[in-house]
Specification:
The chain is of the alpha/beta class. It contains 15 helices and 14 strands. FE3-S4 cluster binds next to α14.
């Protein structure tokens, strides 16, 4: 990779050992991916580097060692001109009484979060930063973690980001640089799979089904959706999350919606495939069925807000719950960013939801926390997919209305 004199000096330690390490991360990653140079980065969404370490088998000693390393680096600041936010803090569930709230881990997570804020990161603590102020413009070069948000940034906002991990996003935040490869380059943003949609997408979760179906087929490719209306922000959120769950998709195009794809021809850079994959009404039903694995109707968890709920979704859930009561023995959790919860508090939605026996949880994700559950109903294809794999729960993925109905009844009542 060609480095400038300044970049070479940083790599050689001119700005200290931590920035030299950051530079090495970017250079080695870039070289592995065929990048020729580093380019300026406008915007990052970095994940704190200690999410749920306990669930991955870390001990208090390894966590302390980890925090000591971070303290060493804590004099660093985010790069001038680069807008940096941070992702979900998975272990701040200590407001909820669950065994997963290990005191050491919670303390360390708080310490890391404070260091990040000192360094200049805006603590959004969400997997959906575009709902709470991190909304890059078309063409902005970003370094985002969280696969669902990456797809959203590329496809809905027209910004450009490859899929980042903790180290590369933190390095990009501190150095204001990213290696140039993948979807940062025009030629790698061309559609690779045409999905002709004839199914009627009625609910937000139906868009998740479309994404889950297409992600499986597209793999690392770029699906292009044709025949769909313009999604709402919440629908686009579900589509993008599901695409990155069943596949390794970094971006998609919705002809007429994706900023750089006003037409099908533009999405494929002129070369539209002759044989589309069909997403019919039957495919929609089959996609729901493919993920549901419940062997009975009694439920113990309803998880909404995956990706994190918007204020509009919370308003809708509050309206569905008004005057009702969540069944005994059922946990109804709505995950969101703390900024959004502030709005829900002000609007009275939180009170309505809590009066009904539900909870709004900030900064977290029950599945990534591996909160045990026996049978989960959720409106998120991503949540359902990972709850099966990471928690071992039985899952039912369904529209929000059906999820709330199940929470009140204490059992799955059908779509
Ligand atoms: Fe967010 Fe957790 Fe879903 S991180 S996208 S709520 S699986």
């Amino acid at each position: 990779m060609q480095l400038t004199g300044d970049q070479r000096a940083i790599l050689d330690g001119a700005r200290g050992s931590y920035l030299a390490t950051c530079m090495r991360w970017l250079v080695e990653w870039g070289e592995a991916m065929g990048a020729r140079r580093l380019i300026p980065c406008d915007n990052t969404h970095a994940i704190l580097a200690a999410p749920n370490l306990m669930a991955r088998g870390a001990t208090p000693a390894t966590l302390e060692a980890f925090a000591a390393g971070l303290r060493q680096a804590s004099s660093q600041k985010t790069a001038a001109g680069c807008y940096c936010t941070i992702h979900t803090a998975f272990v701040t569930l200590d407001e909820v009484d669950v065994a997963q709230n290990d005191a050491t881990e919670v303390r360390l997570q708080r310490e890391v979060a404070a260091m990040a804020a000192d360094a200049g990161f805006i603590p959004t603590f969400t997997c959906a930063p575009y709902l709470v102020g991190n909304v890059p413009l078309k063409g902005e070069i970003c370094a985002w973690t969280e696969s669902s948000a990456v797809v959203y940034a590329n496809s809905i906002l027209g910004a450009r980001t490859t899929r980042h991990g903790s180290e590369s996003a933190i390095a990009a935040s501190l150095l204001g640089l990213v290696p140039e490869f993948g979807v940062l380059l025009d030629e790698n943003r061309r559609g690779t799979l045409l999905v002709e949609v004839s199914a009627t997408l009625e609910t937000t979760t139906d868009w998740g089904a479309l994404g889950y179906f297409a992600g499986r087929i597209a793999g690392l490719g770029i699906p292009v959706f044709h025949g769909v209306r313009r999604p709402t922000q919440d629908e686009a959120k579900q589509l993008c999350a599901a695409l990155a769950t069943s596949g390794g998709v970094t971006m998609c195009h919705i002809a007429g919606v994706t900023p750089e794809a006003p037409t099908l021809e533009a999405a494929f850079h002129g070369d539209v495939p002759q044989e589309p994959v069909a997403f019919t009404g039957r495919t929609l039903e089959a996609t729901y069925a493919s993920l549901r694995n419940h062997t009975g109707d009694e439920i113990d968890s309803v998880i909404l807000g995956c990706p994190h709920a918007s204020i509009r979704e919370i308003a809708g859930i509050a309206a569905l719950l008004k005057g009702k009561r969540v069944a005994d023995g059922v946990r109804l959790w709505i995950d969101t960013a703390r900024i959004t919860k502030g709005g829900a508090d002000a609007m009275g939605y939180t009170r309505t939801i809590e009066d009904a026996g539900g909870r709004i949880l900030c900064d977290t994700c029950p599945t990534n926390m591996r909160i045990p559950a026996r049978r989960i109903v959720t409106h998120g294809f991503k949540q359902a997919h990972y709850a099966r794999g990471m928690v071992g729960a039985e899952v039912i993925v369904a529209a929000t209305q059906a999820c709330v109905r199940a929470a009140v009844a204490g059992r799955w009542m059908g779509d």
